[in-house]
Amino acid sequence: MTSSTRTADPWLDDDVIDSRAPRFNQTIVGIGSTIAVVTGWWPILLALALQLGIGLRFGRRYCLPCLAYFGLIQPRFGEGRIEDARAPRFANQIGFTVLSAASLAYVTGLTALGAGLGTLVAGLALLAATTGVCVGCELYRIGARFRGVRRRSLERIDLADLGGVDLGAGSGAGEIVVSFGHPLCTDCQAFEASARAAGQRVVSIDVRQRGELARKYGVAIVPTAVAVNADGTVTARLAG
């Protein structure tokens, strides 16, 4: 395998991430947690919790698995699919919490509870690492949808927010697709390319540059896209 040029800087573009990086981190957490539970050497769980906590608090430069992936593996095998970093970050927060609780349980003599929590982390981390099914990420997405509904129902887009886009008169023909995304997000680019190939008119909103619009319309994950008619009414949710 040969290296390829990065589209996202792993240290500066921290609102997105190479999708392979979380799976590498989950492999480390899964294997480490398994060894800790099987051998009873619980300080491994504490070390894993500390690494997750340090990475969450201070950034990827201080996360040893991140340094290993972006410094050694990505340059050799190339960049994977770029995705929104918020879901895997939330999964790391869950992992940090459960690993910390497991360590505390061991310290206080609740060995069975500590082993149970450690086994839970090991199972979920290895599931994510081997299949790509990240339970913590899915919990984030479910919560994001509920938060979006609660804060603001996405029923109408103010056309003035789109920079004076003129949809013209008539029904249907004047519809456009409003796509909230990130310029480095692989899924965002693929969705917009597909929509344009299907003959749809797409207005892209870069949430990195237009964060106020993402907050206004309750956009918690990218890509989020809706079809909008000539008066700004949302007629269909297409993504997110």
Describe this structure in words.
It is a single chain. This protein has 240 residues and is of the alpha+beta class. The mean pLDDT is 88. A four-stranded mixed beta sheet has the order 4-3-5-6. Helix 7 links the parallel strand 3 (176-181) and strand 4. The radius of gyration is 21 Å and the shape is elongated. The chain folds into two domains: 16-145, no CATH class; 153-239, 3-Layer(aba) Sandwich (Glutaredoxin). Helix 1 (20-39) runs antiparallel to helix 2 (43-58), helix 1 packs across helix 3 and helix 2 (43-58) packs antiparallel against helix 4 (86-107). The chain is built from eight helices and six strands, in the order βαααβαααβαβαββ. 53% of the residues lie in helices and 12% in strands.
List its salient traits:
single chain; 240 residues; alpha+beta; Glutaredoxin; 2 domains; 12% strand; elongated
Concise account of the structure shown:
With about 240 residues, this protein is of the alpha+beta class. It is built from 8 helices and 6 strands. The chain has a 4-stranded mixed beta sheet. It has a two-stranded antiparallel sheet with strand order 1-2.
Q: What's the helix and strand layout?
A:
Elements: E1 16-18, H1 20-39, H2 43-58, H3 64-77, E2 82-84, H4 86-107, H5 111-131, H6 135-151, E3 176-181, H7 186-197, E4 202-206, H8 211-216, E5 224-228, E6 234-239
Parallel strand pairs: 3-4
Antiparallel strand pairs: 1-2, 3-5, 5-6
